[in-house]
Amino acid sequence: MAASRPSGPVASETAAARLLAVLWVVSVTTGPWGAAAGGGEESLKCEDLRVGQYICKDPKINDATQEPVNCTNYTAHVPCFPAPNITCKDSGGNETHFTGNEIGFLKPISCRNVNGYSYKVAVALSLFLGWLGADRFYLGYPALGLLKFCTVGFCGIGSLIDFILISMQIVGPSDGSSYIIDYYGTRLTRLSITNETFRKTQLYP
User: Which of 52, 65, 80, 81 lies 20 to 30 Å from 159 when distance is taken between CA atoms?
Assistant: First the structure.
């Protein structure tokens, strides 16, 4: 006589057990254990360490420009030290077991292009000599400076507007550079939207 096939709850449990077994095999062969069995997992790069697994030094600031000393093309680099007992590949591609005193990688930070225009000087000129156009002459706008000089700061209205614009850093040097401002002082950061900016999907009713 043919053996009877399990039915009902017994069959469901058997199918579920087989499915779990298959999923376990797949996870072992494709997961981290599978990578270890296939020859070992590739070492992590130090640049890919998570926050808290390394510490970076503060940049060295140039007293004249108030920007990092190695600022080039709006980018500077600071040395970062992986935490003790962290093993990763350093910037040279060498796998190293760190003790907390070795440099693991150089982290890029943003910096600004300055060309000798002081924010404090510009604000002071705008406040006290703005009606003579001294602020515009200083920032490299001779035509507007001469016009303000001949009209006594557009009867004071232009001087007030320029003072507000310069104080809010909306008007800057004519060459497109940034003001020299204390590195740890108050600065305005302009936000812009690019193709890399995350755009949240709008849901309409």
Answer: 65
